[in-house]
Amino acid sequence: MEDCLAKKMEITVSEAEKRTGRNAMNMQETYTAYLIETRAVEPQTEGQCAPVDSLWRRYSEFELLRNYLSVTYPHIVVPPLPEKRADFVWHKLSADNMDPDFVERRRIGLENFLLRVASHPGLCQDKIFYSFLTQEGGWKEMVNETGFQLKADSRLKALNATFRVKNPDKRFTELKHYSDELQSVISHLLRVRARVADRLYGVYKVHGNYGRVFSEWSAIEKEMGDGLQSAGHHMDVYAASIDDILEEEEHYADQLKEYLFYAEALRAVCRKHELMQYDLEMAAQDLTSKKQQCEELATGTVRTFSLKGMTSKLFGQETPEQREAKIKVLEEQIQEGEEQLKSKNLEGRDFVKSAWADIERFKEQKNHDLKEALINYAVMQISMCKKGIQVWTNAKECFSKM
Amino acid sequence: AAGAPKPLPSSGPKSLREMPHPLATSSSEEMGPALTPSPDLLLPRSIADKDLSLPNGTPVDTSSPASSSSLLNRLQLDDDLDGETRDLFVTVDDPKKHVCTMETYITYRVTTKTTRAEFDLPEYSVRRRYQDFDWLRNKLEESQPTHLIPPLPEKFVVKGVVDRFSEEFVETRRKALDKFLKRITDHPVLSFNEHFNVFLTAKDLNAYKKQGMALLSKMGESVKYVTGGYKLRSRPLEFAAIGEYLDTFSLKLGTIDRIAQRIIKEQLEYLVELREYGPVYSTWGGLEAELSEPLEGVSACIGNCCTALEELSEDMTEDFLPVLREYILYSESMKNVLKKRDQVQAEYEAKLEAVALKKEDRPKVPTDVEKCQDRVECFNADLKADMERWQNNKRQDFRQLLMGMADKNIQYYEKCLTAWESIIPLLQDKPETK
């Protein structure tokens, strides 16, 4: 098994830069460009480090890459991009795309995306992906030349449109249901978490007021003064500590967000299968009806209503030559249809096989990653508690000296 | 948000005739404290005989053996009052609800243990309600106007906002009433006050109150701060300083009160969000297989933190805020005493000036001016001594209060820490292979 690209190449998104340029409508726009750096991880001769290649890409190019991958590998749960716009923000965070904190978190998210793709056995071999990392000029044209947009099924955009599938694959139906629920629960979690962060921020910051009033009070006290003053200082420390605590928590939120978007990718695979199944059933149905038509023409019996049948009754029967011609056409179509159905069936089975393999891989990755995320979250909470104990213990000591 | 207040067990609605009077306790001792001064504490003649009276003519209660005198204050053992030299112990406990046809109210048990000769018995147990404490405080203010009388918890509560009969409210009040009596007990002059003695010992306090009221109506109105009249020439620096100190002090306390209230409010709002947050993890756990236990663990953990936070907010509301408010009330009553002192001094200065203007050739200063001078000096001395005592007690009280606040916060974080640390092994656990 060939190694993933991630093992052969170091990939980082190391910088973000504000740029101004002209867009497609020749209007001035501001955007952020990200620097992608790559370096071969090959055993080098002593003392020599592989050279670093780098190029700049903007978010829309990442989007283009992902769209290409989604269409080209429909059976794969394609890693998601970090959010396009800041969502689930609590009051202190900015919802502005140009905000440096948002840009920073996006930089990390984009790097994560590239690493995910590079370590995916199915995706890392892709040439377009490789060019994205290594070829600055002409990449966009290269992608468009693949004609992937034509392959893209526009029906996928109508997320909630139902297609009546007669024999749905139960596993995919369940999985689609799971992905819907997962999206719903993670959204809810992120929304409430943002509110929790907001409130916690308020609690800590109000304590800062103690600092000032203790200081003012200490000015009129003799013996109590020192104790009050130094305790007040600790209250200031306490109030300030929340900023770092909540910044760290944003990383946890980002980890959850990744899986919120992963749930969408998972749903997309289920959807593609659904459409495939639908198309298959439609093709089979079409084939069946054509065969029936053929039979009717051949035997002269009309079992089903057809406009042709009606018109021929009204305007007279066809000539045998005409009928023969029709039968021939139908037979050709039937043959084509049977071949198509055969290949569609094969396609379908292949899809299910590879999709299911990737879904299993995804499940394991998800369980591993989310467990890690929960552990990190618990560690963060533990750290916050310890800091709290420290500060209040210090304050208590100051009070004891009053 | 915090748990609903718990109602006290009630004595149930009964007709007045059926119920024994709640203030008639089981002690069968005779009523009436001894009012004769103990031989140990006889005052030097000169001070005891002084006709001390207030500006409006009401005589100062001098029947208690250790009344106003700076000399005596310094001789008292108050500064060394530790367990060994204490001879009077008072406790307030055992709140009970009484439901009568006319009203519902709470009484508290007041227990006294003492070796003082002023008390007939070594132990007393009586039941008192808030208005009895209020009465006592008024009597103390009247009879000991040169001293700082400790504050009572607030009399009126906003109906509908606070449940007067909830366990939490009653407990908070009980603690404040206990503090009130203990502060009086610790005071070398106030603890010997006649009314205090009766309060601690009388079976039927109402009868004593009525007797006192009749006396008072004969003497005139109770002491009020009379505005106008005399203008103060110059306030002694130390009292000006005390006044300024009290102004700033009560201002700062007010600010701290507002901050503490704000913190509690923010904490409760945080709690509301946390209560929604925890269960979402549980819902998620229901969707998952391998992650089910870890997610449930996190949910339970957050639940534990909610409980800890609830406890912290309750403690702050019940223990921290009331003490702050008490000290604000204390400062107010102290400022009133300072004003009275100013008035006494102003009266003296006015009389002195009047004498000087008369330009009469007198052999010595007239006695009424002398009396005024004594009044001023006694007031100043009492106030100074009380201020020193107050400052010391205040320091100890705040030290305890603030350390308590720090402690509660430490305990909150420790509870949360334990919760989070305990789920780490759960989160790291490898699932059993299927």
TrEMBL record, chain A:
InterPro entries: AH/BAR_dom_sf, PX_dom, PX_dom_sf, PX_SNX4, SNX4, SNX4_BAR. It comes from the Eukaryota. Pfam families: PX (PF00787). The keyword Protein transport applies. Coiled coil: none annotated. Keywords: Protein transport, Transport. GO terms for cellular component: early endosome membrane; plasma membrane; SNARE complex. SMART domains: PX (SM00312). SUPFAM superfamilies: PX domain (SSF64268). GO terms for biological process: positive regulation of autophagosome assembly; protein transport. GO terms for molecular function: phosphatidylinositol-3-phosphate binding. Residues 12-140 form the PX domain. Belongs to the sorting nexin family. This is SNX4 protein. The gene is Snx4.
From TrEMBL, chain B:
One of its GO terms (molecular function) is phosphatidylinositol binding. Keywords: Protein transport, Transport. InterPro entries: AH/BAR_dom_sf (IPR027267), BAR_dom (IPR004148), PX_dom (IPR001683), PX_dom_sf (IPR036871), SNX30_BAR (IPR028649). Residues 1-72 are annotated as: Disordered. It holds the Pfam family PX. One of its GO terms (cellular component) is early endosome. Residues 63-72 have a biased composition (Low complexity). Residues 86-207 form the PX domain. GO terms for biological process: autophagy of mitochondrion; endocytic recycling; piecemeal microautophagy of the nucleus; protein transport; reticulophagy. The keyword Protein transport applies. Residues 1-10 have a biased composition (Pro residues). The keyword Iron does not apply. PANTHER family: SORTING NEXIN-30 (PTHR45949:SF1), SORTING NEXIN-4 (PTHR45949). Belongs to the sorting nexin family. This is Sorting nexin-30.
